[in-house]
Specification:
Length: about 550
């Protein structure tokens, strides 16, 4: 086999083979077809016959046999007839142009291109050329008529010929794009990111960012054979829960992104617009806390509070949330009153970057967990923020009832004697003190994180502050609207609220840093810590 391959890689020998075909055909196109058929038959026969004495004689013998078959078929098929029932065409070999500058690894290229055909064409090619099945056998296997098999083989052959011809000029290589995923809502069981963290997945959905594409187009652009693309498309259509994926199918049968993707440079542009308002918000927040310090400390927290700066860690995320939420409301009232926002349990947002870009949005997360009938309380809710300054204690889906430190923290709301604890709980208490959940005073354990009986307490604290920034909200709403129109695809315009929210992710980090600079916040000495953790209980 190796000797045959070497022979077929010889330019002079290929020229002779082409000359043989050219003298016996009507034009260069037929010659190229015949030469292609000869080469493929030679390779196929060489694979089956390992004991070849004279390789030149072997090739020329096959060449004459192929020409005899070619002549017979040419007699039977003097015209090409297209109809819904019949296509009388030569379909027994895949064509390839044999030219001086053509890549010598033509066989590998042909096999490569078969992988890029869509399934209906790929199947017949594999059965016919690789499995060497007859037309009638393929028709029976696929439950279609023989004419349909011939038409598919013809179309596949023309597609492969065109792609091999243009391989050198139209070859698109994979240029990796990374997507940093953000999300909001309840991710448990609803998060399409869980099946889309691979580089292949990210690049596939990015190509559908705002352009409808077929599986074949995706295959060609990614340089990945169709079977893998078809499988990945199906995964991204269904996501984790079976109905919310990162791709959606259009009416035309193509695929397009089902979530907003913003390029890093564009995201930075929007984020900077938010950040330029950071100093104003932080200064107003600092002034508000100082003017209302005693009022805030006097609020009915269930555990003792003496430092408004500690409370401020739990309020700062609400400042950020309130600000962006009011911008969303203003944008809707002013520009999108006729659009009904999409409703989902969970939303995904993506920031796309290349390998030369360092994506750092200063992201702070806010995760909440819930429980019922725990430690004598009807409901228990916990939330924590985490980011540059604070590590997370827990994430969405965490089970409160199985967390020994949290259970002890809940028990310590009204004080808990250290001596009353068995040895294993004393060890848990030591860990809870280390992580900032509780603190010890004399022999009594107390809950250190903020504890309330209702979320309304936080709203009461913030109500006066909200009215002081109405003018700023109006200005930002007008600016963000321009970016929504510029960067959100039309088919995802009903998710404009998510764009407003997610492009402001860096705002909280900027607010925290500015408040630390002003002395409104004091950075934790170590992390995880009590700062930014909130517990709400009801009896």
């Amino acid at each position: 086999m190796q000797e045959v391959l070497k022979l077929l890689e010889d330019k002079d020998f290929l020229d002779s083979l082409y000359g043989f075909a050219y003298k016996r055909t009507n034009n260069s196109y037929e010659a190229e077809d015949l030469c292609s058929d000869i080469i493929l038959r030679v390779l196929s026969s060489a694979q089956k016959n390992s004991d070849i004495k004279n390789h030149h004689a072997f090739v020329w013998t096959i060449a004459r046999r192929v020409y005899a078959d070619f002549s017979e078929k040419r007699k039977r098929s003097s015209m090409v007839l297209y109809s819904d029932e019949v296509v009388n065409i030569q379909t027994d070999q895949i064509d390839e142009y044999i030219e001086e500058e053509t890549d010598k690894n033509y066989l590998q290229r042909i096999m490569h291109e078969i992988g890029f055909l869509s399934k209906i064409y790929r199947d017949v090619c594999v059965m016919y050329y690789l499995d060497e099945m007859k037309i009638s056998e393929i028709a029976k296997r696929l439950d279609i008529n023989e004419s349909a098999v011939k038409k598919r083989l013809y179309s596949a052959r023309e597609t492969i010929k065109e792609r091999v011809e243009n391989m050198d000029t139209n070859n698109l290589t994979l240029k990796p794009i990374n997507i940093s995923y953000l999300g909001t809502g309840n991710p448990v069981g609803n998060d399409p990111r869980e099946v889309a963290y691979r580089s292949f997945s990210k690049n596939l959905v990015y190509l559908c960012k705002n352009t409808e594409r077929t599986a074949k187009e995706l295959s060609e652009l990614l340089g990945v054979p169709m079977p893998f693309v078809e499988e990945e498309v199906n995964i991204q259509l269904h996501g984790q829960n079976g109905y919310y994926g990162l791709l959606r199918k259009t009416e035309s049968g193509k695929y397009i992104s089902n979530f907003i993707i913003v390029d890093w440079d564009d995201y930075t542009q929007v984020n900077e617009m938010y950040k330029k308002n950071t100093d104003i918000i932080a200064q107003k927040f600092d002034t508000y806390l100082k003017n209302n310090e005693q009022k805030i400390l006097g609020m009915p927290f269930l555990n003792k509070q003496t430092d408004v700066r500690f409370i401020a860690w739990s309020l700062i995320s609400r400042v950020n949330h309130w600000f962006t939420e009011n911008i969303q409301i203003r944008v809707k009232e002013k520009y999108f009153s006729e659009i009904t926002p999409t409703k989902r349990d969970f939303f995904t947002f993506g920031i796309a970057s290349n390998e030369n870009q360092n994506v750092d949005i200063g992201f702070y997360g806010w995760d909440g967990i819930y429980g019922h009938n725990i430690c004598g309380y009807k409901t228990v809710e916990l939330a924590n923020i985490y980011g540059r300054r604070i590590s997370a204690h827990f994430h969405c889906g965490h089970d409160i009832s199985q967390d020994k430190q949290l259970l002890l923290t809940i028990k310590a709301i009204n004080g808990l004697s250290m001596d009353s604890l068995p040895d294993d709980e004393k060890e848990t208490a030591a860990k809870a003190i280390e992580s900032g959940y509780i603190y010890k005073e004399d022999d009594i354990l107390y809950t250190k994180i903020l504890v309330t009986e209702s979320e309304q307490l936080y709203r009461d604290i913030m109500n006066d502050f909200i009215g002081e920034t109405d003018e700023l909200i109006e200005t930002v709403a007008d600016e963000i609207y321009k970016y929504v129109k510029k960067f959100v695809p039309k088919h995802l315009m009903d998710e404009y609220k998510l764009f407003v929210q997610m492009t402001s992710c860096g705002l909280l980090d900027a607010l925290i840093e500015k408040c630390i600079e002003l002395g409104t916040l004091v950075p934790p000495e170590k992390t995880p810590s009590a700062e930014g953790v909130m517990l709400t209980v009801t009896k």
